[in-house]
Amino acid sequence: MGLWMPFSSNRKPWGLRWRSSVWFITTVVGFGITTDLLVYSIVIPVLPFQLERLSYRKVSSLTGWLLCAYSAGLVVSTIPIAMHSERYSMRRIPLILGLIALIASQVMFMEAPNYAVMAIARVLQGISSSMVWIVGLALLCDTTPEKNVGKQLGIAMTGLSIGLLVGTPAGGALYTRFGFRAPFIFGEICAVVDLGLRLLIIERDVALKWGHDPSEPTAVIMKGALDASSTSDIQLSSIPTAQVHGSTTEINEVEDPMVPDKSRLPNARKLSIARKSIMDPVLVRRPIPLLSVIIKLSQSPRALVALSMSFVYGLVQSMQEPSLPLHLQSIWAFNSDRVGLAYLAAVVPALISSPLAGFYVDRVGPNYITFICLLLTLPWWIVLTLRHSLPLFIFALAAQCFFVSGVVAPVTTELASVSRKMPGVGYAHIYGAFNLAFGIGTAVGPVIGGQIYDHARHGWTALCCITSALILVCVTLAFCYTGADPLLAKVLRHYYPIDSIRKHSDEESNSTDNTSRTHIVSRAESA
Fold first, then answer.
1. Helix or strand (DSSP H, E) at 250
2. Phi/psi class of residue 239: alpha, beta or left (left: φ > 0; alpha: ψ in -120 to 50)?
3. DSSP at 220
4. What backbone torsions phi and psi does residue 368 show, to the nearest 5 degrees?
5. Which of 247, 288, 221 minimizes the C-alpha distance to 428?
6. Backbone angles phi, psi at 179, to 5 degrees
7. How many CA atoms lie within 13 A of 489 on its CB side?
8. By its UniProt entry, which InterPro entries does this protein fall under (predicted)?
9. What is the pLDDT tens value at each position of the chain, 527 positions in all?
10. Helix, strand, coil percentages, rounded to 5, for the chain
11. Are 399 and 380 within 8 A, CB to CB?
12. How is 495-514 classified by DSSP, letter by letter?
């Protein structure tokens, strides 16, 4: 009963503090991302060999279309999920429903009698993925204090690398030893564990009704001052004392007629903090139409650049998925086990880069971290075109994975910052746009990668060159637009200080005036 209590019961949920805490929510969202990527990647080393065993031709292209089906489900479901989550102020229920859909899709894929059913199962997996990437990240930002958003997102994004780390080698090993069903059974076990964690979630607005603010654990409502039944009747959207203007919140202190002199109460400050938490604009969600959300996002260069990077990230990562196993097989005669080990060696460094990037984003801002990570990713894609040394190839694969994974935390933090500065645009809206851009990238990426690898004379080299060009574009955009104070603006201020420009302008103006006066006097004297 305690698992469902946040929805209907008037009794205080058990484990309120830890079930609503920032670290528990981070753990659940991180594990959800891990499960999502594990289910996505566990079939990557399996599908090409399974399709070959079933006598299919042009395996790379067929594999690409299956991966595209996953992204198609993700893209189609993004807008309804984002709008529904913001309109009805729900995070927990969509997360639970998404995981049930994931388990069902795994069973469908495992028992699929033909290629068409496999594609439908992958579409359903994509819909489930949207839940954790939109609603999960929004839930994490709802709960986390603004100053720690980058760090917590970086930790949660570690799940992306862990999912790839476990999924790809596990898929190859289980397929080789136990057959086609084994990888899916492993994915279902992980999904059941994830479902148990999601059932334990208590959202921040529910915790506030019981006098606990997860983002400010010390701000506890005075016992008896504000009970759950009275709090639940408060209509947050009608409170006149909370006014949101862009990124700032002006809250006038609520005077309690029953307490004439608050200074005499030792817990008066706690009561005031708790009431301010209840009126937190993050929790007061006033949904706006889809068209208004699109217009607001399209008017923000920061949002457009961050979403462009999300698209490129999805495109770059997914273009290599149908082609990398075949490239390793053709050049170094890898089987599915060795392909899994190659992915393992590549993904391990990424476990460090995501939380490390998130840690520094909160201290120096997303502009520096995004630019540095993208710039250091670029040369390794050139090295990946070389065919003479397997150790060098694996090292280059690991290096590019390390730096490109470091981009995710600053980009998602940048989007959260943009959302806070746009009245009416919630976290689910902004992460819905992120998921849409990423999903479109992952939808077209496998198809482009598979087609180029199958039809180009040097398919792998062509893919690496395309990737390098896309990353170079992102480096330029990050330098010019990322962050509240982009690096380009910093450079311009350094070399062209505003005071110097004004002084130079004033000197030119004075010089012009003096010249004009001299010219007038000269003409008067000559006359």
1. strand 248-251
2. beta
3. B
4. -65, -45
5. 288
6. 100, -175
7. 9
8. MFS, MFS_dom, MFS_trans_sf, MFS_Vesicular_Transporter
9. 445 444 455 778 888 888 889 899 999 999 999 999 898 888 877 777 777 777 777 777 777 788 778 878 888 898 888 888 887 767 888 899 999 999 999 998 888 777 888 889 989 998 998 888 899 988 898 888 888 888 888 899 888 888 877 887 788 788 888 888 899 999 999 999 999 999 998 888 888 888 787 777 655 444 433 444 444 443 333 333 333 333 334 334 344 444 444 444 444 444 444 444 444 544 455 667 777 888 888 889 999 999 999 999 989 888 887 788 888 888 888 877 787 778 777 778 888 888 899 889 988 889 999 999 999 999 999 999 988 888 899 999 999 989 998 998 999 999 999 988 888 888 888 899 998 898 888 878 888 888 888 888 888 999 999 999 999 999 999 999 999 899 999 999 988 886 555 555 555 555 555 555 555 545 555 55
10. 75, 0, 25
11. yes
12. HS-HHHHHHHHHHHHHHHHH
Q: Hey, what are 451's tokens?
A: 């087609």
- For residue 467 the two structure tokens come to 């990737």
- Locate tokens 């289980």: which residue? 174
Contact by Cβ (8 Å): 481, 301: yes
What would you report as the CA-atom Rg of the chain, rounded to the nearest whole angstrom? Answer: 27
One-letter identity of residue 417: S
Angle between helices 149-178 and 390-405 (to 10 degrees): 140
Longest dimension (CA), the chain: 108
User: Torsions phi, psi of 376, nearest 5?
Assistant: -80, -15
CA 44 – CA 46 distance, rounded (Å):
5
Burial class of 514 by CB neighbour count within 10 A (0 to 12, 13 to 18, 19+)? exposed
Sign of the dihedral through C-alpha 349, 354, 357, 359: negative
Describe the crossing of helices 115-130 and 59-87 by its angle, rounded to 10 degrees: 30
* Burial of 188 (C-beta count, 10 Å sphere; 0-12/13-18/19+): middle
Buried b (16+ CB within 10 A) or exposed e, 479-491: bebbbeebbeeee
What is the rounded distance in angstroms from the CA atom of residue 243 to the CA atom of residue 250? 5
CA gap 20, 205 in Å, rounded: 10
Place of tokens 């503090």: 17
